[in-house]
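Sanity check

After download, print the first record. It should look like this:
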Amino acid sequence: MKTLIIEDEPQAISALKAEIKTNCKELEIIGEAGSIQEAIEKIKLLNPELVFLDIQLSDGLGFEVLNSVKEYHFKIIFTTAYSQYAIKAIKFSALDYLLKPIDSEDLISAVNRAKKNKKEEELIKFETFLSNIKSTGNRKKIALQTTEGISIFEINSIIKCSAESNYTCIYFTNGKKQLFSKTLKELEELLSNSGFERIHHSHIINLEHLTNFINKDGGYVIMSDKSTVPVSQRKRAHLIEVITRINS
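Expected structure tokens:
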């Protein structure tokens, strides 16, 4: 698998190359690039199948490379030492990333996923990622794996998420619902700080679609689609606090 490394720190390049040589012998390193412009030129010239892209380069953000490449014929694995904002955007897009210093097992897992991923699905992920980088608030999109492929939708179209064993059923504003191969806990982590609250061990709600909180019969909320969702006793005080803060 022809591989291009886009990284501006010599020590990080050496470390990644050593990890690849030891743990991912199927990867053939065909080049390196240390700046945005050089990366764009190398991608066009070398036509890599896999790109390791550092989020923070000396002359700007690595995302600018993707903005400038017209056609995506490669898989991508981001590398970063920080930038929580960037990591959230990457996770929303279902793309892979590695935290520096890179862990051997994480590298092997990311490369194995890259080999299995379909190019059509990678293109969808790229487009979702670039859209999210430019968007703010709940206009962002999220990419989630289904049994049939990748599904893309705006975050604010989600009304609620309900656990179904190791899967999660998401209910949308258009009246549809869909089953996804993520646990409720994984979705809770993904949607944190995006206006969602887990109000029950089996339910997460979008606060934008919360219309009423009924503090009786154990406590429950009414959502914008007229559905009701129970509130667990240990979550009740926190939910009241959140609602009060929103309305103050």
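If your output differs, re-run the checksum step. Summary of this record's structure: The longest strand covers residues 158-164.
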